[in-house]
Amino acid sequence: MKMYKLPKFEHILTAFTVGLIISSFLPSSIVSVLAQSNSKVKQEDHPKSHEIEIGVAELSSDRIAYKMNNYLIRDLINNNTVDITSKYEDKPTIPGPTIVVNEGDKVKITLVNEMGWGYPSVHTHGAHYKITSDGTLKDLNKVSDQAASPTNPYTYEWDAANGTAGSWPFHDHTIGRNALGKSMDGLETVGLFSSIIINPSSDRIPALVDGIPKNVSTSDIDKDFILFVNDDVIWGSEIDYTKGGKHSNLGVNPTLTTNKDSIVRFNIQSIGNDFHNFTIDGIKWLKPGTNKVINSHVIGPLANHVFTIKADRNGTYYDNSEINLLGGMKGNFSVISLNSTVGDNREQAKI
Ligand SMILES: [Cu+2]
């Protein structure tokens, strides 16, 4: 039990105690209804619909970015909704807002063009979708233009069907449209990219823990780091599950910070045209799909690399090619040790 997770445990304990007291006064039929609606596990097992509005806005310095406008999670069994918009940055960011779903969930994204010009879209990898949610233009898909004009938003529907678990990029894909004299070629590389993380329904994630390959639960993950390796820079964001799943943009070649012994997942996506030899000095992880321990991996254009580790030491991550190192494609992985007082408490808590 980690010290900073104790408050959660206290809440559960309180809820459990109150539940016991209440249930002892109620007829068993009502208790069973309460048990169903209170069961955290059963709730989480329900498939969800992720109903999202994403805006497209111009940043300064010729950058264009996605921004989270609204995010509602609807339980497809009991129709309950939870609004998680406030967990996201309230401004356009590069990478754009990360979407996290479970295998079996549905996603509905309405894209709103807030630039007053152009025709941006959303095209995803990994998840399934019908041809009308391809996020391309009629020239390519032969069916329809699937982008958001300044006056008409466009809605995309994705299915995180069985077999789609993983971390996938989504990005603008209406390349070639030239509106109001401004070229839309390759808009995804100026900032219109983000990712969808589809957690497996098995809830088992391979991880390297204390040098040993293990399966951990997605609920064991303390932080998700999302890194987009572009041709000359690495863009980053994180989701901090120890702070209720707070999404933070980390900027360019960011320092990645986490507590010692936390479980962190790296979701690395490559965009642009180059190959990158992603390396972290001092840190090892599992080559995906194997028990082989590695500390570097070559990632090609529009490929991804995902691994989960227990954070036990500092490291430096970089693209291990001379030209990209000279360009500064590197950053720090900073592991914070808890102070000795907290350390003592942790030992007591274990006993
Ligand atoms: Cu793509």
From TrEMBL:
Molecular function (Gene Ontology), one example: oxidoreductase activity
InterPro entries membership: Cu-oxidase-like_N (IPR011707), Cu-oxidase_fam (IPR045087), Cupredoxin (IPR008972)
Gene3D superfamilies: Cupredoxins - blue copper proteins
Keywords: Copper, Metal-binding, Oxidoreductase
Residue stretches spanning the membrane: none
Domain (Plastocyanin-like) ranges: 94-180
PANTHER family: FI03373P-RELATED, MULTI-COPPER OXIDASE
Protein's name in the database: Multicopper oxidase
Organism of origin: Candidatus Nitrosocosmicus franklandianus
